[in-house]
Amino acid sequence: MLRTHNLSELNKKIAGQEVTICAWVKYRRDHGGLIFLTLRDHFGLVQAKIDEKVDKDVYQEAEKLKHEWVVQIKGRVQERPEGMINKEMENGDIEIEVKSLKILNSCETLPFEIGELKGGEANESLRLKYRFLDLRREKLQHLLKTKSEFIEHFRSYFRSKGFLNIQTPILANSSPEGARDFLVPSRIHPGKFYALPQAPQQFKQLLMVGGVDKYFQIAPCFRDEDPRQDRHYGEFYQLDMEMSFVDKLDDIFDVMEPIMISATTEFSNKKIINLDKNGKFLRLPWHEAIDKYGIDKPDLRYALELKDVSEACKDSGFQVFDNALENSGVVKALVVSKAKEMTRKMIDDLTAVAKKGGAKGLAYLSIKDNEISSPIAKFLSEEKQKEIIKAAGAHDGDIIFFTADTWRIASEALGGVRIKIAEMFALADDKLASWLWIVDFPMYDHSELEEGKIDFSHNPFSMPQGGMESLNKKDPLDILAYQFDLILNGFEISSGSIRNHSPEIMYRAFEIAGYSKEEVDKKFGAMIRAFSYGAPPHGGNAPGIDRLLMVLQDLNSIRDIYAFPKDGQGHDLMTGSPSEFSDEALKDLHIKINKKDK
Fold first, then answer.
1. Contacts of 423 by beta carbon, 8 Å cutoff, 6+ apart
2. Distance between alpha carbon 30 and the CA centroid of its chain, in Å?
3. Cα distance between residue 11 and residue 5, in whole Å
4. Taken in order 227, 232, 237, 239, is the CA torsion positive or negative?
5. What is d(CA 401, CA 416) in angstroms, rounded to the nearest whole number?
6. pLDDT by residue for the chain (598 residues), tens digit each?
């Protein structure tokens, strides 16, 4: 070994001892015959002192050192004088009196400074190009260590619960998980492709059929979907778990809640709120979540509930309200106690959010000093204004925002306004953690791709509530599924369900979504065959490890969680991927590129 100690192991207890350390030079300070080095390794910092009077050769060698050179130093640990203690450094009460110095490697001129970033320093593209340098920053070193401990925390828990850690295939078949697949061409099977798994969904269910009682895996998943704050491009990791002989959501919740509570307390400074009297996470039916908050992943660190004021708005004289109600729509209201702080610019921004959510506009009534002001006030009688204000539960100092449309559009558009208002007034407390389960998802919804078509609204492998009877007798849009999402502070952390383990029910469920028996056999033949050979009832879920840690650590982007992330356009600026391949390599894979003239 090149060293006897890492820097975190140096302290006053070993003062007087000879040590050998290896580190990067963070700073060098010359004081006329004395050189002070601030050295850094993965574990911490320490100061080293080189005295020209003690050893001129060592001093001359130290004069060569620059930022980020790698050195091996032998010396004695000694306590610093009282007035020289650096209280901002963990071992700032000691320093190394250098006896010998060996330069292990030099460093070229840095493209940016390694220290913690300040506003405007080192843009992201530059840092991603030189990610191996960016990783030396203390914050990222801490995150790498935290993520390692975080994953081990989950692994230890699930092993203690009797779950087997099993790896599922990476080269797989396509699966309807809601995103585009990454395809891998087969060299030995011309014209055929593997798909990188969007999730190990089919494989983990097949493990249950194969007699595995409980399975888990920190699973790599691949989805060709646009990146965003909480979604890394291309690849991510999830804690995949599945259990045999479970038929109730409680069976899964009872396993997941303790680990999520411990992960919150051990890897964040957040206080968990909204637990019920038994210490369980709040449960909210999907329909209620949309109705109250306009979204199926509501942040409950702040209230701001939507209210249905349709009854009070009947025959209002305001055409927008009247037209919506005459066409079986609703009028939804959101009361905000910020009437005096709400500017015209803010209202315009909120209107843009509502329109983006599908609403035709955003009406409002502002109550200041018991005076009502609003562009729509002239359409409403004084009596009708009071009736609407009472129905909304508003008071002096409040402003009421309205959307009027179908129930879904009015709710979701106003839900977007709710989120924007919380951002405007910083209503979400970072020191709080609000966990909840969203349950009773609809099994089906109108297809976004094909008008008039019914499609799965969630996981197609979920068991419909009521089983075959519901599939045969109910309107598809009224069928609920044993599906759920786990939400933390407005982010979807996990999805899961009690699975459909019956071939007959599965064929029927896919038939409603427009899949023929032949298509189901082609896409999911292995699973259908397996379910014909004594499949146990089973269920599970798969929390996103990266997204969960991002929320717990209050990071601005999920990219901070990865050692080597892609940028916002899916590029790896460090390695230059994606890249072109030679014609010979493509020919070997039976691929021909149609290159268009520029």
1. none
2. 46
3. 11
4. negative
5. 12
6. 999 999 999 999 999 999 999 999 999 999 989 999 999 999 999 999 999 999 999 999 999 999 999 999 999 999 988 888 888 888 899 999 999 999 999 999 999 988 766 645 568 899 999 999 999 999 999 999 999 999 999 999 999 999 999 999 999 887 665 678 899 999 999 999 999 999 999 899 999 999 999 999 999 999 888 888 888 988 999 999 999 999 999 999 999 999 999 999 999 999 999 999 899 999 999 999 999 999 999 999 999 999 999 999 999 999 999 999 999 999 999 999 988 899 999 999 999 999 999 999 999 999 999 899 899 988 999 899 999 999 999 999 999 999 999 999 999 999 999 999 999 999 999 999 999 999 999 999 987 777 778 889 888 889 999 999 999 999 999 999 999 999 999 999 999 999 999 999 999 999 999 999 999 998 888 888 999 999 999 999 999 999 999 999 999 889 889 999 998 888 999 999 998 888 888 888 888 888 765 4
Could you tell me where the beta strands, DSSP code E, fall in 406-475?
432-439, 444-446, 454-456
Q: Are 290 and 442 in contact (CB under 8 A)?
A: no
Measured CA distances, 193 to 168, 184, 418, 445, 588 (Å): 18, 5, 44, 30, 14
Identify whether 375 is preceded by a cis peptide bond (ω within 30 of 0): no
Place of tokens 């997941």: 256
Instruction: Give yes or no for a contact between 73 and 62, defined as CB atoms under 8 angstroms apart.
Output: no
Q: Are 213 and 162 in contact (CB under 8 A)?
A: yes
- Domains delineated in the chain: 7-105 (2.40.50.140), 140-282+435-562 (3.30.930.10), 302-427 (3.30.1360.30)
Total-model pTM: 0.91
Beta bridge partners, 218, equal 239
> DSSP state, 537?
P
Strands ordered across the beta sheet of 363-368:
306-308, 330-336, 399-405, 363-368, 371-373
